[in-house]
Amino acid sequence: MPQQRSTAAEPRRRDPAATQKKLLVAARREFAQSGLAGARVDEIAARAGVNKQLVYHYFGDKDALYLAVLEWVYEEIRAKERELNLAGLPPDKAIKKLIEASFDHLAAHPDFIVLLNDENRSGARHVRGSRKLAAMHSPLVDMVSKILAEGIKAGTFRKGINPVHLYISIAGLSYFFFSNTPTLSAIFGKDLSSAAAKRARRKHVVDLVMQALRP
Amino acid sequence: MPQQRSTAAEPRRRDPAATQKKLLVAARREFAQSGLAGARVDEIAARAGVNKQLVYHYFGDKDALYLAVLEWVYEEIRAKERELNLAGLPPDKAIKKLIEASFDHLAAHPDFIVLLNDENRSGARHVRGSRKLAAMHSPLVDMVSKILAEGIKAGTFRKGINPVHLYISIAGLSYFFFSNTPTLSAIFGKDLSSAAAKRARRKHVVDLVMQALRP
Amino acid sequence: MPQQRSTAAEPRRRDPAATQKKLLVAARREFAQSGLAGARVDEIAARAGVNKQLVYHYFGDKDALYLAVLEWVYEEIRAKERELNLAGLPPDKAIKKLIEASFDHLAAHPDFIVLLNDENRSGARHVRGSRKLAAMHSPLVDMVSKILAEGIKAGTFRKGINPVHLYISIAGLSYFFFSNTPTLSAIFGKDLSSAAAKRARRKHVVDLVMQALRP
Amino acid sequence: MPQQRSTAAEPRRRDPAATQKKLLVAARREFAQSGLAGARVDEIAARAGVNKQLVYHYFGDKDALYLAVLEWVYEEIRAKERELNLAGLPPDKAIKKLIEASFDHLAAHPDFIVLLNDENRSGARHVRGSRKLAAMHSPLVDMVSKILAEGIKAGTFRKGINPVHLYISIAGLSYFFFSNTPTLSAIFGKDLSSAAAKRARRKHVVDLVMQALRP
DNA sequence: AATGAATGAGTTTTCATTCAT
DNA sequence: TATGAATGAAAACTCATTCAT
Q1: Percent over 70 (pLDDT), chain C
Q2: Does the nearest atom of strand E lie within 7 Å of A61's Cβ?
Q3: Facing B176 at nearest CB: one of A36, A168, A183
Q4: Which positions ≥6 away from B156 have C-beta within 8 Å?
Q5: Cβ neighbours, 10 Å, residue B12
Q6: CATH of the structural domain A67-213, one choice from 3.90.1510.10, 2.30.110.10, 1.10.357.10, 3.30.70.270
């Protein structure tokens, strides 16, 4: 009865891929909640419902697990970007779609932000050492360049805009809102985490950038 | 010779205010470098050159020390804001000065950003519990409202801009650049931490916002 | 050779039950010697010859370890009581046996007394929270009631003796002698810890109670 | 105006005797509540409302303060004993009065018991080193001897009773009840700390000893 | 592949005690 | 006499990691 183990009664036994995925999911939550230093390997294993040793077995150590999570969330963003299909759109529609997608991704994955915090504090230590991430070029800066050029030619956009900085601006206008919601809410005495506040922010961001690009 | 005590011979003996300041300075560095969870009380005391127990004597515990640092950096920003004196300026000059000051403050105090990271991750736990911070209202949102109104009246600015969100945008355009310099540099394969890159960013941010405000 | 593991070569490897027992033994000694507050977890681990972390792994914390020791010594007493078999004896023999057993148990386990000191000081904090101890009813008060009733009927004992208080008296007459031997010896200038002193005390206690029960 | 300091406005300044007394009172409470190891010098100073350094100034160290408390409570007992005036009473009245006084003292000063716990655990380390305590002989053992002899002569008491052990028994019958009230209450599931329980105990103890002394 | 036992180096915090005024 | 600052040693407890099965 060699297959007895994989019956419904004990469905999780001996499924390495599933175990690794469970660990990644748990690690993502724990790192997002507590940061790299604050995260607990014990807690990750417990959340994943597997033995702690498997963290070391599959990932090596805590840092490597953190990197694996980073690679995962970056891959998620890249996938979104690949699906945008901005190429065929008129310039203003393309930029608008990009801004909205950028905002919506952060709204949907707020943990992305806090996962990057420790990484930036440490000078991108993990990211710079990752072959996988090095291979994940974002097509967007090139895309933004093209869209800007097209828009200028069509008279939709003004000249003199640096595409890298525009990309950073688009990201930053949403990023800062999500990353600092708690302190901003406390300081302004106003709840910025509500759905209404998010809608208002989205509208503002789209509006600000689009207006800035006018000739 | 009543001032004998403060001669160079024994400069640090019996000076509680100086001891607390040294601890705050050391804590600010350590928290900025390693985050709340990653910071080591031992290291803070060592950096300050004082006995570790004094952290507990003067501040209570690690969290209270962290809050004291947060209060300090917020007070620093508020002081800068008070010195801006935007009231007398024409609307466009006022906004430009605000954007530049915002950028320059982060450029001068990059630790402010990383100090806020853990605070935001934990839902502004410390900030919300602080009486001192509650009393430190920023005058800027009101100021931005007035400037916008003036600018609209004068025909310098367009209508329909939410002052709170404009303030967040001004902050965010600089903040994200500084907070994510390491990962952005790694991803773009381009060093954004250079003086030239900062100058370019500053120019872009000012330009973007000013253009967006045009009628 | 399934028993190979327990050969002399590597006798202590991978034997969690033995590890816990070693910790309990060490803790019992340390708590008896130094009290709850005075006991050192480091010292307990060292005495047990195991890693300190295992205290936390197996017992949770110092207090829980202390409770485990209390449960152990109570269980020891209850086991002794179960073995007494007073039921079949004539009333005077039964009471005499009970007094002697009570004295002998304390003589054999003087640590029982000092282990209870901190517990009583703190209002039986641990004992009251223990399910195990709640389940360990002593059969002796009921037994003493029956014996007294029988003795009264047989004319061996006088009436009007409260069985609970008699039980407390039997315990107390021995307990106080053992618990306060050092100060009593110092105050009386007479060594009460000698074997002779114990014999004399035992005789006195038996005699006192038996005489007090005469009709 | 040399006496200005001692006006009502600042009544406590420069009153060494009062300061020492306050420290002793505070120490007695703290040692009774937490034991020698568990007591905190900080807490004692805080309870006394004086500076911590004064503990060291007046008493030397924590152990010496503990000894001072022990000397105090012993002196209290000796004072009670001196006031008993058993000499003129008939033997049975004398013994009864002794038992009752013994019980009543513990009822009034339950901290005496717990103060002695640590002392006994450590082998009466402090008591044996104290000249003061060495000088405080209790007159009671001699007194009990005389009373017993008188009682035997008068036919009130039986022969063969060791006066030292009788004294220990009288003390122990009350002591154990008070020292172990919390655990006994928990084990018996019956509150022994009530006034009614104490009355019942007192009666039982007097009765038990008096009956035991009958010829 | 998976588990629970075990470890050593740390981490925050506490505490008795001494110093300087 | 009295105070608050300062200290060093140690306390309970934690944690990433490795071992044995």
Answers
A1: 94
A2: no
A3: A168
A4: B90, B91, B92, B150, B213, B215
A5: 10
A6: 1.10.357.10
